[in-house]
Amino acid sequence: MSNFQDNLFDKIQQKSDVNPDEIYKVADSVKHADFSDEKTVRELVRRLSRIANKPISKAKEDKIVKSITSSNMPVDMQSLNKMFKK
After folding, report:
1. Containing structural domain, residue 30
2. Cβ–Cβ < 8 Å for 20, 9
3. How far apart are the first and last CA of the chain?
4. What is the pLDDT of residues 22-36, one digit of tens each?
5. Average pLDDT of the residues in 36-64
6. Is 6 part of a structural domain of the chain?
7. pLDDT score of 4
């Protein structure tokens, strides 16, 4: 891993208390995931919520899952940030 990646993951861990190994595990698990499958997406959303220690409401989970499975997921960071803050 490069020095840049080490520094980036150190900062992520400091600010969010998320273990970099968990990030790698999630990234690896979604490489071949079917994002049109509601069950798969719902499990991923719940897993990320647990890892980040940020509970989300059922309504927000439903909205995220629907956005991803219907391919209406925003691709820019500003839109993603707005969606998660609602």
Report:
1. 18-70
2. yes
3. 35
4. 877 887 887 788 888
5. 89
6. no
7. 66
**Summary mean pLDDT of the chain:** 78
3-state secondary structure of 4: helix
Residue 5 lies in a domain: no
Q: CA of 55: how far to CAs of 46, 71, 81, in Å?
A: 8, 24, 16
Whether 26 is covered by a domain: the verdict is yes
Q: Which single residue is written with the structure tokens 């992520």?
A: 12
Domain total in the chain: 1
- Type of residue at 27: A
Give CA angle at 24 (42, 59), nearest 5°.
Answer: 20
Closest by CA position to 32, among listed 42, 22, 40, 23 = 40
Instruction: Write down the residue that tokens 């998660």 correspond to.
Output: 84
- pLDDT in the model for residue 60: 92
**Contacts of 80 by beta carbon, 8 Å cutoff, 6+ apart:** 74
